[in-house]
Amino acid sequence: MSVMVSTPVLHPASAVPSEAPDTSVPYELIELFFFAYRDFVGDPDRILADYGFGRAHHRVLHFVERRPGLTIAELLDILQITKQSLNRVLKELVETGFVESRTGTQDKRQRNLYATQAGRELAVRLAQLQGRRINGALAQVGPEAGEIVARYLAGLIDPSERRKVQDALAGPR
Question: Which pTM does this prediction carry?
Fold first, then answer.
């Protein structure tokens, strides 16, 4: 697969070739990444829509299910969203019975988050959908590719965030 674009870019207004594109930009990979992400999240999006949920709900539910007892501060740090955004999504997940918030055992001001049975079932259902898509793609390139893809994706993560991501990837506590 070639990752460099060598054709001139046409601007619709003028229909005249613009300057030659920067051949160091991997346009094909960028676009493949967009399309892969669209389809990767598209499967869960259809299921989440039945509940009136979106991608933010999916991300919260995923990490709460994977890390029982996760604090709100830890979740904010992982997702890098505003407290206001998290509060809206979390409120909906709690009110609909997918997540429960418990007072911390060590610090009563702290709120620990847990997926309910319904939350675990939904999170696993969504992860299985995405897992099938990932496993299908890996099967096309061979069993050794999983480690290479993991290193590649890790390389896309901002170096200052890698430790936090490694902690989040640790899975259940």
Answer: 0.81
